[in-house]
């Protein structure tokens, strides 16, 4: 009997956990690229709207971007881990259906149940990995950008540009990172 | 009876004397106001001078002069800095507006203008000072744009930059999700 989607055996649970925290090289690269990109977007806003010259504030901008990219990447990692578990549980049936459809009748008779289940598990892990990454990036980016816009253009609007940049970037990225560390059990 | 008549006559005459000895005299109050709500370097600034005659005499040879707006700091666009009026009737007011353009940004101190007038016939000219506006911050063009321009283009471009950051990941996630949810339903 194939395990029900909500009731993993201990080994499968362990497997998923193992795959969880550590990122593959490819994932790390994707995350850091996204983090740097989303941290660089505010530079455009601050340059054009707050009239901060790029060359004058280059050092500040570079430090701010790297600082925020670090925390945003941390948030990606944490959020992805939280989401992967939930997504994997939901995709069980879908993945099983896909694999069963792909295998012909004769093939499915040859392969043992265990082998089939392993393949399903592996495929599910792959799908969950990709989806959780995308969703984590989307969710974290949205949170970061909303916090940044609120703080820079509403709360601290009257501050002069340089303190505005520092407070907004540090605040938004720190809060995003902090919120990602809270885990819902 | 004759004494009564005499007293009334004296009183009547003394009234005349009192009235005759009081000369009608003008008194001018000068106020100086800035009409703009936002003052920016390079944009026109309107200053209004109001002169009220609160006395009961006619003010003659009225001369208003404002020498506080120097050529180096302000460019005169319209109106004159020194104006003359022949007479200002009691209980009336006159207004004069000058349009200047600030050439520098930063804090600027607007001090009093001076009015010179003759309060009553054959008297010496009197001087009066206008109200002071005090120190006013003149925004540079950069600051003005920063605070008040609508920035539609900038926000539009921001929206474009967020496409790879927000829209792309979500679309990938959503495609994957529907693909595997549909399959489960079909099964």
Automatic annotation (TrEMBL), chain B:
Entry-linked Pfam families: TRAP_beta
Q: Is the keyword Signal assigned to this protein?
A: yes
The organism's superkingdom is given as Eukaryota
List residues traversing the bilayer: 155-173
User: Keywords assigned by UniProt?
Assistant: Membrane, Signal, Transmembrane, Transmembrane helix
Signal peptide boundaries: 1-21
Q: Which organism is it from?
A: Ciona intestinalis
The name of this protein is Translocon-associated protein subunit beta
């Amino acid at each position: 009997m194939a395990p029900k989607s909500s009731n993993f055996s201990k080994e499968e649970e362990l497997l998923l956990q193992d795959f969880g925290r550590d990122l593959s090289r490819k994932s790390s690269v994707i995350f850091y690229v996204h983090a740097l990109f989303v941290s660089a977007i505010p530079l455009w806003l601050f340059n054009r709207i707050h009239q901060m010259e790029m060359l004058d504030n280059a050092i500040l901008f570079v430090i701010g971007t790297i600082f925020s990219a670090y925390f945003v990447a941390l948030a990606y990692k944490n959020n992805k881990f939280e989401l992967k578990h939930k997504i994997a549980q939901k995709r069980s049936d879908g993945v099983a259906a896909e694999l069963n459809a792909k295998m012909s009748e004769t093939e499915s008779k040859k392969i043992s149940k265990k082998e089939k289940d392993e393949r399903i598990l592996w495929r599910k892990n792959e799908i969950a990995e990709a989806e959780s990454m995308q969703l984590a990036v989307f969710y974290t980016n949205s949170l970061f950008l909303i916090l940044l816009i609120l703080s820079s253009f509403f709360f601290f609007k009257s501050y002069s540009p340089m303190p505005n940049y520092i407070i907004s970037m540090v605040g938004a990225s720190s809060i995003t990172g902090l919120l990602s560390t809270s885990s819902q059990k | 009876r004759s004494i009564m008549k005499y007293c009334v006559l004296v009183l009547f005459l003394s009234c005349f004397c009192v009235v005759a000895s009081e000369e009608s005299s003008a008194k001018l109050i000068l106020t100086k106001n800035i009409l703009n709500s936002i003052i920016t370097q390079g944009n026109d600034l309107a200053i209004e001078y109001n002169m009220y005659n609160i006395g009961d005499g006619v003010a003659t040879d009225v001369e208003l002069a404002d020498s506080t707006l120097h050529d180096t700091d302000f460019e005169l666009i319209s109106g004159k800095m020194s104006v003359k009026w022949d007479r200002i009737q009691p209980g009336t007011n006159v207004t004069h507006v000058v349009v200047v353009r600030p050439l520098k940004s930063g804090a600027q101190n607007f001090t009093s203008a001076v009015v010179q007038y003759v309060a009553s016939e054959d008297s010496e000219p009197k001087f009066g000072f206008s109200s002071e506006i005090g120190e006013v911050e003149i925004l540079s063009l950069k600051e003005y744009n920063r605070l008040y321009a609508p920035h539609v283009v900038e926000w539009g471009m921001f929206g474009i930059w967020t496409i790879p950051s927000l829209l792309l990941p979500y679309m990938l996630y959503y495609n994957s999700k529907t693909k595997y949810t549909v399959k489960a339903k079909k099964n």
